């Protein structure tokens, strides 16, 4: 109530790019203050065995994670814990540093409950982020989102080497990897979600994995609007290269189609660079989750992402086949109590369905 009626209207008056480091950095500081940090986390964290998820030997205290992009440089791990998340994904991290595209990086579409995101893979680069995290003792499991440096000459084999550099740098940090396939700069401009290009990338990742003796699970993060034949080919490659899961999904990048996913299209200008998050992605990502789950019968694990604002949204994706959930936009719009509310609602929904653990609901439509 206080957040929606008092704090949010003030935050909306400040550009999103200005507010993000203030809120996230402030939250991280508060999380570290003795007594206050623990008191906040006591309030925001919902600790219940019914919400615990065990996946690939990783213990997630609840199924709701902070998606890649909020904590690009690994600065806000305590923030994620304090505000109730069950895990977080840091990055996307690229081989070399990149200062980001010209601003604005974030545009709010308030009526649509969506954001237009155009950071362009801003990153401090693998080495710097690694040294920040090297001695951290995080409360939560966290994933490493791996991408390639956004530079015109980082294409083709160089781009693949850049992905591999990040992958190897983080060999002893993080619980899982996500390879972000929405990096368009291959030599001929085709994205890494194209099966031939993806095959080359996965061959090199597989080699690197053997070299560094990594047993961490690997997820691929895909766009929500891929054609079914492409998704089928990606699934095949996952089986072939022992990729454990998919993160479904990233932003909607297709500017021609973007307006069709918005309830108030007049709020959006297709000439704005960047991809759409939030409500615009909800349905299309859930449909993609359902498709992959039914096709693979659970042999590929899914992290569901896109337009989750409430417990009902999260439960819908879990029932469609997601084992875990990630979100950003719902948290940005609805504030610090979002994850607590989602987890409390999940407990109610589980009870209604007569289930004792959230994993029992996966794929149970
Ligand atoms: C501010 C912001 C930055 C993002 N940056 C990244 C990124 O660096 N890497 C990535 O894989 N996804 C990134 N995303 C996409 C999100 O991780 C997520 O897939 C997408 O926003 C859909 O979820 P949501 O509707 O809950 O925001 C970003 C999203 C937002 C809102």
TrEMBL record:
One cellular component term (GO) for this entry is: cytoplasm
CDD domains for the chain: DHOD_2_like (cd04738)
Q: What is its main location?
A: membrane
The chemistry this enzyme catalyses reads:
(S)-dihydroorotate + a quinone = orotate + a quinol
Pathway involvement of the protein, from the record: Pyrimidine metabolism; UMP biosynthesis via de novo pathway; orotate from (S)-dihydroorotate (quinone route): step 1/1
Q: Where is the Dihydroorotate dehydrogenase catalytic domain?
A: 51-349
Mind listing the GO molecular function terms for this protein?
dihydroorotate dehydrogenase (quinone) activity
**The enzyme's E.C. designation:** 1.3.5.2
List, alphabetically, the SUPFAM superfamilies matched. FMN-linked oxidoreductases
Q: Which UniProt keywords apply?
A: Flavoprotein, FMN, Membrane, Oxidoreductase, Pyrimidine biosynthesis
Q: Where in the cell is it found?
A: Membrane
Biological processes per GO annotation: 'de novo' pyrimidine nucleobase biosynthetic process; 'de novo' UMP biosynthetic process
Give the required cofactors. Answer: FMN
Q: Which InterPro entries match?
A: Aldolase_TIM, DHO_dehydrogenase, Dihydroorotate_DH_2, Dihydroorotate_DH_cat, Dihydroorotate_DH_CS
Stored Gene3D superfamilies: Aldolase class I (3.20.20.70)
Report the superkingdom from the record: Bacteria
What's the family?
Belongs to the dihydroorotate dehydrogenase family. Type 2 subfamily.
Q: What does this protein do?
A: Catalyzes the conversion of dihydroorotate to orotate with quinone as electron acceptor.
Its name, as the record gives it, is Dihydroorotate dehydrogenase (quinone)
Name the source organism.
Candidatus Kerfeldbacteria bacterium CG08_land_8_20_14_0_20_43_14
Its taxonomic path starts at: Bacteria, Candidatus Kerfeldiibacteriota
